[in-house]
């Protein structure tokens, strides 16, 4: 889609996405994020594969992204055939000034975190509206093993959260990993790394959507171009 036919926010997303994709070089192993911003990036990568003959091996973070990548002619490989990735790009639901992120609005947080963890460089691509003073407004997604959902809910409440099971058509939404998601409304998060540690210590949580200390650079799409924010 051309810039002109997109909403202002989508134009910002597309600018950030295209900038991230411009950093990809032939021969790289690349992690592909999930969500509407990542979707722009996958389309831009597909265009480079077609137009420039760029050769990459791509690991998608969701089935939705895998389907799009394959339809764009990008070579998709299974994660267990690659050791580490050169870079990955992915969106975020919120980002604070310390480059801590809330992710998982699209339900792909577990694979997104594993892929970001395995990448030498993680470029987070966002529109300006994602930048906040404190992570808060977007409920924090927590992916849970269904067997443990009640126990996890109780423990999350002890941490100050109001958890809500994510539903689709009246039934629990099942992730690509066969798990459920609890969307957790917390008070403004003063210390994301500390909360991340507390969440990781609860048995039954497969992964949570707080990404701390993982971003290499934040690429923010603006009305006129992009702004790059490095690690603080
Ligand atoms: C999916 C994610 C996305 O990156 C996040 O929800 C942002 O999505 P979008 O780019 O559509 O705003 O974490 O699990």
How would you describe what is shown here?
The protein has 2 domains: 3-132 and 213-224, Rossmann fold (3-Layer(aba) Sandwich), CATH 3.40.50.1360; 140-207, 2-Layer Sandwich (Alpha-Beta Plaits), CATH 3.30.70. Helices cover 30% and strands 27% of the residues. Helix 1 (8-22) crosses helix 2 (36-52). It has helices at residues 8-22, 36-52, 63-71, 109-117, 149-158, 192-200; strands at residues 29-32, 57-60, 85-90, 94-95, 101-102, 119-127, 140-144, 162-165, 167-168, 171-172, 180-185, 205-208, 210-211, 217-221, 226-230. It is globular. 47% of the residues are buried. The two termini are 34 Å apart. With 232 residues, it is α/β, with parallel strands linked by helices.
Give the distance, in angstroms, between the N- and C-terminal Cα atoms: 34 Å
| Helix/strand order, N-terminal first | HEHEHEEEHEEHEEEEHEEEE
Helix content: 25-40%
> What is the correct CATH architecture of the largest domain?
3-Layer(aba) Sandwich
In spatial order, strands of the major sheet run 2-1-3-6-14-15
Contiguous uncertain segments of 5+ residues? none
* Bound small molecules, deduplicated: ribulose-5-phosphate
Tally the structural domains. Answer: 2
Give the count of helical stretches: 6
Beta-strand segment tally = 15
Strand % is 25-35%
How would you sum up the major sheet? 6 strands, mixed
Mean pLDDT: 97
Category from helices, strands and their pairing: alpha/beta
CATH class of the largest domain: Alpha Beta
Enter the CATH topology name of the largest domain.
Rossmann fold
Radius of gyration equals 17 Å
Indicate the overall shape.
Answer: globular
